[in-house]
Amino acid sequence: MVHYSYLDELNKKTRRIKVYWLFLIVTISIAIISLLVIIRNETNFFVDIQESKNGLTNEDKKEIEDRLLAGWARKELGLDEREKLEAQILGDQTSALDEEEKLNIEKRLIQ
């Protein structure tokens, strides 16, 4: 009688261990699949940008800039301060300006 309960305990522990291993394998698989999906989405985004023949709009450039640059890099380059300065000086008209006009205004402000 005692050896049957011991076998039952061993069977329960082995089933529990099998469930833990299965859970671990499933978790790792989901992490790998999600990582591959993220990589594919980012790759498709950059392929679409490279294949566009018409050039990039300001919104596309801003989206690329936001995806590529981390917060500390944006701060180092002064991009956030530049946008704030443009908004203060020009108001809401900055989104309507193209890059050449922005560069001309920036050159005039520096001189």
Structural write-up:
By secondary structure, this protein is mainly α. It has two domains: 51 residues; 57 residues, no CATH class. The chain has five helices and no strands. The longest helix is centred in the first third of the chain and has 50 residues.
Key words describing this protein structure:
elongated, 0% strand, 83% helix, 111 residues, single chain
List the helices and strands and how they pair.
Blueprint: H1 2-51, H2 58-68, H3 71-77, H4 79-90, H5 99-110
Count of helix runs: 5
The chain-level structural class is mainly alpha
- Cα-atom radius of gyration: 28 Å
Largest sheet: none
Helix content: over 70%
Determine the N-to-C terminus distance: 96 Å
Whole-number count of domains = 2
Order of helices and strands: HHHHH
Low-confidence stretches: none
Brief write-up:
The protein is mainly α and 111 residues long.
